[in-house]
Amino acid sequence: MDALTCGGDLYEQDRFTPDTAEFLRCTFAELHPLPVFLAPGNHDWFGSSSLYHQMTWTPNVHVFHEATLIPVPLADGITLWGAGHQAPANTRGFFEDGFQVDRGGVHVALAEHLTRGRDTCPLLLDDVTVHADAARTRDVLDLLLRLSTERQIVVFTQEEQVAAWARERLTGPEHAMVNLSPVAVG
Description:
Blueprint: E1 4-6, H1 18-30, E2 36-38, H2 51-54, E3 61-63, E4 70-75, E5 78-82, E6 106-110, E7 123-126, H3 134-147, E8 153-156, H4 160-169
Parallel strand pairs: 1-2, 2-3, 5-6, 7-8
Antiparallel strand pairs: 4-5
Protein backbone atom coordinates (compact mmCIF):
# COMPACT_ATOMS: atom_id res chain seq x y z
CA MET A 1 0.00 0.00 0.00
CA ASP A 2 1.55 3.28 -1.08
CA ALA A 3 0.22 6.64 0.07
CA LEU A 4 1.32 10.22 0.65
CA THR A 5 0.87 11.55 4.19
CA CYS A 6 1.38 14.98 5.70
CA GLY A 7 1.22 15.30 9.48
CA GLY A 8 0.65 19.05 9.75
CA ASP A 9 2.06 22.34 8.54
CA LEU A 10 1.50 21.76 4.83
CA TYR A 11 1.07 25.55 4.53
CA GLU A 12 0.84 28.64 6.78
CA GLN A 13 -2.76 29.57 7.60
CA ASP A 14 -2.03 33.32 7.63
CA ARG A 15 -0.07 33.26 4.36
CA PHE A 16 -1.82 31.00 1.88
CA THR A 17 -3.17 32.44 -1.36
CA PRO A 18 -5.49 31.11 -4.07
CA ASP A 19 -2.30 30.06 -5.90
CA THR A 20 -1.27 27.93 -2.89
CA ALA A 21 -4.66 26.24 -2.87
CA GLU A 22 -4.65 25.57 -6.61
CA PHE A 23 -1.07 24.27 -6.53
CA LEU A 24 -1.91 21.75 -3.78
CA ARG A 25 -5.20 20.72 -5.41
CA CYS A 26 -3.49 20.11 -8.79
CA THR A 27 -0.49 18.36 -7.26
CA PHE A 28 -2.64 15.91 -5.28
CA ALA A 29 -5.02 15.42 -8.26
CA GLU A 30 -2.05 14.40 -10.43
CA LEU A 31 -1.24 11.70 -7.87
CA HIS A 32 -4.69 10.09 -8.28
CA PRO A 33 -5.34 7.24 -7.57
CA LEU A 34 -2.56 7.35 -4.95
CA PRO A 35 -4.23 8.08 -1.59
CA VAL A 36 -3.24 11.37 0.07
CA PHE A 37 -3.87 11.76 3.82
CA LEU A 38 -3.62 15.22 5.38
CA ALA A 39 -3.69 15.95 9.13
CA PRO A 40 -3.95 19.71 9.76
CA GLY A 41 -1.39 21.03 12.26
CA ASN A 42 -1.13 24.13 14.39
CA HIS A 43 0.08 26.30 11.46
CA ASP A 44 -2.51 25.01 8.98
CA TRP A 45 -5.34 24.18 11.39
CA PHE A 46 -8.78 23.10 10.17
CA GLY A 47 -11.43 25.83 10.38
CA SER A 48 -13.98 27.61 8.20
CA SER A 49 -11.29 29.87 6.68
CA SER A 50 -8.73 27.10 6.16
CA LEU A 51 -7.56 25.93 2.77
CA TYR A 52 -8.59 22.41 3.80
CA HIS A 53 -12.21 23.52 4.28
CA GLN A 54 -12.41 25.79 1.22
CA MET A 55 -10.99 23.36 -1.37
CA THR A 56 -12.87 20.78 -3.34
CA TRP A 57 -10.40 17.91 -3.22
CA THR A 58 -10.19 14.99 -5.62
CA PRO A 59 -11.47 11.62 -4.28
CA ASN A 60 -7.93 10.42 -3.46
CA VAL A 61 -7.45 13.17 -0.81
CA HIS A 62 -8.60 12.60 2.77
CA VAL A 63 -8.38 15.50 5.24
CA PHE A 64 -8.60 14.55 8.92
CA HIS A 65 -10.79 17.42 10.08
CA GLU A 66 -11.85 15.90 13.39
CA ALA A 67 -10.16 16.81 16.70
CA THR A 68 -10.12 13.14 17.71
CA LEU A 69 -8.34 10.22 16.07
CA ILE A 70 -10.48 8.74 13.29
CA PRO A 71 -9.73 5.34 11.66
CA VAL A 72 -9.28 4.82 7.93
CA PRO A 73 -8.77 1.19 6.85
CA LEU A 74 -5.89 1.08 4.33
CA ALA A 75 -5.74 -2.62 3.61
CA ASP A 76 -6.77 -5.85 5.30
CA GLY A 77 -5.57 -5.52 8.90
CA ILE A 78 -3.93 -2.08 8.46
CA THR A 79 -5.58 1.03 9.87
CA LEU A 80 -4.43 4.65 9.63
CA TRP A 81 -5.64 6.89 12.47
CA GLY A 82 -5.62 10.63 11.90
CA ALA A 83 -6.72 13.85 13.57
CA GLY A 84 -6.46 17.55 12.84
CA HIS A 85 -5.81 20.64 14.90
CA GLN A 86 -8.83 22.93 15.15
CA ALA A 87 -6.93 26.02 16.29
CA PRO A 88 -3.42 27.47 16.06
CA ALA A 89 -2.64 26.95 19.75
CA ASN A 90 -3.78 25.26 22.95
CA THR A 91 -4.96 22.11 21.21
CA ARG A 92 -5.25 19.23 23.62
CA GLY A 93 -3.39 15.99 22.91
CA PHE A 94 -5.25 13.48 20.79
CA PHE A 95 -4.76 10.74 23.41
CA GLU A 96 -6.01 12.77 26.37
CA ASP A 97 -9.59 11.49 26.24
CA GLY A 98 -8.54 7.89 26.94
CA PHE A 99 -8.26 6.84 23.29
CA GLN A 100 -7.94 3.10 22.75
CA VAL A 101 -7.70 1.07 19.57
CA ASP A 102 -10.93 -0.86 19.04
CA ARG A 103 -9.75 -3.38 16.44
CA GLY A 104 -6.91 -5.76 15.72
CA GLY A 105 -4.16 -5.45 13.13
CA VAL A 106 -1.44 -2.92 12.43
CA HIS A 107 -2.12 0.69 13.43
CA VAL A 108 -0.42 3.88 12.24
CA ALA A 109 -1.18 7.36 13.62
CA LEU A 110 -0.97 10.57 11.57
CA ALA A 111 -1.08 13.91 13.35
CA GLU A 112 1.28 16.79 13.90
CA HIS A 113 1.28 16.38 17.68
CA LEU A 114 -0.25 13.46 19.54
CA THR A 115 0.50 14.96 22.94
CA ARG A 116 0.29 18.38 24.52
CA GLY A 117 3.12 20.85 24.81
CA ARG A 118 6.65 19.50 24.75
CA ASP A 119 5.70 15.86 25.43
CA THR A 120 6.47 13.35 22.69
CA CYS A 121 5.19 9.88 21.94
CA PRO A 122 7.68 7.06 21.48
CA LEU A 123 8.34 5.83 17.98
CA LEU A 124 7.84 2.04 17.77
CA LEU A 125 9.30 0.27 14.73
CA ASP A 126 9.15 -3.43 13.88
CA ASP A 127 11.74 -4.86 11.45
CA VAL A 128 12.16 -1.43 9.86
CA THR A 129 15.23 -2.50 7.85
CA VAL A 130 14.20 -6.03 6.90
CA HIS A 131 14.22 -5.24 3.15
CA ALA A 132 17.25 -2.90 3.18
CA ASP A 133 20.79 -3.68 2.12
CA ALA A 134 23.65 -3.39 4.65
CA ALA A 135 24.54 0.24 3.81
CA ARG A 136 20.94 1.45 3.95
CA THR A 137 20.38 -0.46 7.20
CA ARG A 138 23.31 1.38 8.81
CA ASP A 139 22.04 4.73 7.45
CA VAL A 140 18.54 4.14 8.84
CA LEU A 141 19.88 3.07 12.24
CA ASP A 142 22.23 6.07 12.40
CA LEU A 143 19.30 8.37 11.60
CA LEU A 144 17.18 6.76 14.31
CA LEU A 145 20.04 7.20 16.78
CA ARG A 146 20.16 10.93 15.97
CA LEU A 147 16.38 11.20 16.30
CA SER A 148 16.53 9.46 19.68
CA THR A 149 17.83 12.70 21.23
CA GLU A 150 14.32 14.13 20.67
CA ARG A 151 12.10 11.13 21.47
CA GLN A 152 12.19 7.56 22.67
CA ILE A 153 12.65 5.09 19.81
CA VAL A 154 12.00 1.36 20.19
CA VAL A 155 13.13 -0.97 17.40
CA PHE A 156 12.05 -4.62 17.30
CA THR A 157 14.18 -6.82 15.07
CA GLN A 158 15.31 -10.36 14.36
CA GLU A 159 18.20 -9.19 12.16
CA GLU A 160 21.71 -9.93 13.42
CA GLN A 161 23.10 -6.89 11.57
CA VAL A 162 20.78 -4.59 13.57
CA ALA A 163 21.68 -6.31 16.83
CA ALA A 164 25.41 -6.01 16.05
CA TRP A 165 24.98 -2.30 15.24
CA ALA A 166 23.14 -1.81 18.54
CA ARG A 167 25.85 -3.58 20.56
CA GLU A 168 28.46 -1.33 18.94
CA ARG A 169 26.63 2.03 18.94
CA LEU A 170 24.22 2.01 21.91
CA THR A 171 26.79 2.47 24.65
CA GLY A 172 25.47 5.45 26.64
CA PRO A 173 23.39 5.31 29.81
CA GLU A 174 20.38 6.64 27.85
CA HIS A 175 20.39 3.55 25.61
CA ALA A 176 19.24 0.01 26.25
CA MET A 177 19.23 -3.21 24.28
CA VAL A 178 16.90 -5.95 25.47
CA ASN A 179 16.95 -9.49 24.08
CA LEU A 180 13.48 -11.00 24.15
CA SER A 181 12.97 -14.74 24.51
CA PRO A 182 10.87 -16.46 21.83
CA VAL A 183 7.30 -17.22 22.83
CA ALA A 184 5.65 -20.46 21.76
CA VAL A 185 2.52 -19.87 19.67
CA GLY A 186 -0.36 -22.28 19.58
